[in-house]
Amino acid sequence: MPKLLAVRKDGDPVLRKKAKKVSRVDDSLRRLIDDMFHTMYNNETKGIGLAAPQVGVSLRIIVVDMQDDEHEPLALINPEIVKASDELVVGAEGCLSVPGLRGDVERHVWVSVKGRDEDGHDTRVKAEGWFARCLQHEIDHLDGILYTDRASNMRYADDEDICRERAEQEVSGQKVPVSI
Predict the structure, then answer these.
(1) In CATH, what number is assigned to the domain containing residue 66?
(2) How many of the other CB atoms lie within 10 Å of CB of 38?
């Protein structure tokens, strides 16, 4: 049975360290990945992504679940952006490690990411839109970068703010996560 892990908050030193590369994929690593998904799904802010440093483990692991019909839940070990669009777009982001705040962050429209899956096989993912934003956000965590380092227009994420962002995204057919 997966465990609910404590999500580290801004100010915790583990969030500012560059995470270590994973050298071996084994059952203990797969348990950590299961625990990370469980924690992400059961967090009160309903995130769509989580990086291992956010649960106090300084390893290069991320989990992402866009929770839509287009994307399967994804775990990436040692993820690395290998290609990115020249075009950038600004979007509102939040974070499980920085609860209650939102900020506007400029990110690549699409990215191509390589890494390993939870069985240790090499994999590549091409992502665009919110999926690309989420991958960039989580990979930043592995380098000790929080979205607040890149954000402008920081504000409290009140219900009105979230509802407005959701309405704007629904018009364009996109889903808006509460926190990445």
Answers:
(1) 3.90.45.10
(2) 17
Q: For residue 89, which of 103, 106, 104, 102 has the smallest C-alpha distance?
A: 106
Closest CA to 41 of 15, 67, 60, 10: 67
* Residues sharing a CB contact under 8 Å with residue 145, sequence separation 6 or more, in sequence order: none
Query: What domain count does the chain have?
Result: 1
pLDDT digits (tens, 9 = 90+) for 17-52: 999 999 999 999 999 999 999 999 997 767 899 999
Name the residue among 152, 151, 153, 157 with its Cα closest to residue 179.
157
Residue 2 lies in a domain: no
pLDDT at position 173 over 80:
no
Catalytic residue numbers read 138
Spatial contact of 98 and 10, defined as CB atoms under 8 Å apart? yes
* Structural domain includes residue 113: yes
For residue 111, is it within any domain? yes
Q: What is the pLDDT of residues 55-103, one digit of tens each?
A: 999 999 999 999 999 999 999 999 999 999 999 999 999 999 999 999 9
Half-sphere exposure of 121 (CA within 13 A, CB side): 4
C-alpha distance from residue 8 to each of 12, 35, 65, 169 (Å): 6, 14, 20, 29
Cα angle, residue 125 at apex, residues 119 and 126 outer, rounded to 5°: 175
Residues in the chain: 180
